[in-house]
Amino acid sequence: MIRSSAERHRSLVLGNVAALALLVLMVGCEGVTEPEPDPDPDPDPVEFSGQLAYEEVANFGTMMSYGTAPEGDSRFFVSELAGRVWIIEDGEVHDEPFLDISDVVSVGVGERGFLGMTFHPRFPSEPYFYVNYTTDDGHNQIQRFTVSPTDPNRIDRASRHHIMTIEQPNAYHNGGELVFGPDEMLYVALGDGSVGYDQAGHGQNPHTLLASMLRIDVINGDPYGIPPDNPFADGEHGAPEVWHYGLRHAWRFDFDREANLLYLPDVGEDSWEEVNVVPADEGGHNFGWAVAEGPDCFGGDDCDLSGITMPVLWYGPEDGCAVIGGFVYRGEAMPVLQGRYFFADHCQKWVRAIRYENEEVVEDDTWTANLWQIPEQINSFGRDGNGELYLLTRNGSVMKIVEAEE
After folding, report:
1. DSSP string computed for 261-275
2. What percent of the chain clears pLDDT 90, i.e. is strictly above it?
3. Are 72 and 385 in contact (CB under 8 A)?
4. Interior angle at CA 34, CA 47 and CA 26, nearest 5
5. In this structure, is residue 33 part of a structural domain?
6. Which three-class secondary structure state does DSSP give residue 180?
7. Which of 148, 283, 321, 327 has the greatest number of CB atoms lying within 10 Å of its CB?
């Protein structure tokens, strides 16, 4: 059952999204005389069918990992877990990959592979492309590549510039996403590196890079610098790179720049899948793992929850097994959905959306009903250069989220 921090023992609004009322914008007229014709009349009232659907734009027949694009770019970049990045443009997949490092990416067992990618925040004037992947030794590699100066649709593989290696003790909970924040710092999400139950105690140890979100400066440092306002920048009480800690397996996250918020879901162990939301510029949060899981003490034992940032939303095994973080919708095709945060569950194959305001999930503007059931397991979301959202699946589909026809 899905629950929010605003009302922990009562389910969030569930039901058919079709029950959403149609949104009608009406402009009143003032005065007693007949108004002059408006030379620039308002557009037709915004109406929303209340239902969403998906349109397959490509199928690669292999596990997909992520999708992204620089703002305003007409191209959409999608990655395979095996280590190839492809361009979809005007509904067609380019014949050659944008980047192919499949010969050095290790997939194998567990949650290894090509885990994340992002463009420099000033792309294309700064033609850099950053990736996170695992190699044969199982460790995460954060690297930078440069787009070819003669072909904007190809990476110059010889331009590889190593940024950092994160040692991984296991093939599971490697985390993966890396994103430039509103402050142009590079953020990297990492899991606890455990097969389960955080045997090594990484979650509550900010001195390790695992079970953490890192924040590093790759623009002004080589290979990177430590932002002086990181909570452990001096290294005394934690690793200088750590921005947040207490995470089990933060697979995907998103910055909503308009609201200055970080949406950070975390895959649970036994009882709860959770979504955390904190101010984007506020570091040092402890999200609780493995003292807490969701809103409760882990394992049901008594514990001290003081100092732990509680999730804003959580759901149990009856609703799914692994939360897949998505994006806040800021596109133009479905304006009534502006500001909604989309997320999914890998096992139950549903997609849901919430609206977060004033430090809580707003119940009367929140919908957690199943939007649709898709036939494939969802691995990740994608967002194109216009802010429209996509689903990437285990079986290789890339599907655009659209409004259903009535």
Report:
1. EEEEEE--SSS-EEE
2. 76
3. yes
4. 15
5. no
6. strand
7. 327
CATH of the domain at 170: 2.120.10.30
**How far apart are the C-alpha atoms of 209 and 199, rounded to whole Å?**
16
- Nearest 10 degrees: Cα torsion 261, 162, 170, 240: -50
Listed in sequence order, the residues at least 6 apart from 27 whose beta carbon sits closer than 8 Å to its beta carbon are 42
As for how many domains the chain has, the answer is 1
- Residue 100: pLDDT over 60: yes
Cβ atoms within 10 A of the Cβ of 153, count? 14
Q: Between the CA atoms of 203, 204, 206 and 211, what dihedral angle is there, to the nearest 10 degrees?
A: 10
Q: Is 333 inside any structural domain?
A: yes
Q: What would the pLDDT profile of 286-333 be if each residue is shown by its tens digit?
A: 999 999 999 999 987 789 999 999 999 999 999 899 999 999 999 999
Q: Using the structure block, give the residue that is written with the tokens 């949650």.
A: 111
Asked whether residue 378 is domain-assigned, the answer is yes
HEC string for 317-370: CCCCCCEEEEEECCCCCCHHHCCEEEEEECCCCEEEEEEEECCEECHHHCECCC
Backbone angles phi, psi at 391, to 5 degrees: -115, 140
Q: Which two tokens stand for residue 351?
A: 């997609």
- Is the residue at 76 inside a domain? yes
Query: pLDDT digit string (tens) for 348-388?
Result: 888 888 999 999 998 433 333 344 456 688 999 999 999 99
Residues 6+ apart with CB under 8 A from 191: 111, 172, 173, 174, 175, 210, 211, 247, 248, 249, 250, 251, 267
Residue 167 in tokens:
């040692």
In which domain, by residue range, is 317 found? 3-23+44-403
Report whether 343 contacts 266 (CB < 8 A): no
